[in-house]
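Structure in, sequence out. Go:
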């Protein structure tokens, strides 16, 4: 009886992962279509800066979703949650926010009374940059530990 409950719980978990993965793929496609419909006309209107910012924003958001889908599929294949793709999502999210904040800061340059907002935005950009650095170091350490573990296993085989 207990074995049947575990079996069905594992099946339900896999079903949830498949459903979430499929839903994320649909959302990523919707984001791309949404940008094509709403973003590209901005280029034809001559609003190159706004269109480019939206392009980066949507493209990076789509990459984040794709990376989460990759993590979900990898979990379904191997049965183990991988850390590295999650860290990559964090880097993409931080870079996306830095790009948007940079555009906001450059758009408010020269405005009277924008000094406080400028400082706050610069602090946020600095913290996001630090976050990217920390996540990159974490990815390096994860890769280093994988190579260390694989070399340790090779030594045990000898």
């Amino acid at each position: 009886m207990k074995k049947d409950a575990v079996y069905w719980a594992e099946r339900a978990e896999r079903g949830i992962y498949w459903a979430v993965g499929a839903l994320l793929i649909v959302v990523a496609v919707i984001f791309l279509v949404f940008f094509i419909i709403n973003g590209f006309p901005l280029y034809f209107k001559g609003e190159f800066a706004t269109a480019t910012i939206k392009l980066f924003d949507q493209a990076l958001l789509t990459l984040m979703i794709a990376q989460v889908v990759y993590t979900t599929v990898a979990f379904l294949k191997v049965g183990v949650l991988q850390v590295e793709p999650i860290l990559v999502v964090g880097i993409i999210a931080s870079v996306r926010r830095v790009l948007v904040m940079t555009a906001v800061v450059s758009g408010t340059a020269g405005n009277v009374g924008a000094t406080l907002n400028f400082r706050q935005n610069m602090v946020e950009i600095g913290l996001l940059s630090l976050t990217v650095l920390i996540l990159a170091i974490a990815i390096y350490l994860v890769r280093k530990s994988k190579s260390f573990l694989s070399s340790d296993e090779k030594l045990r085989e000898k």
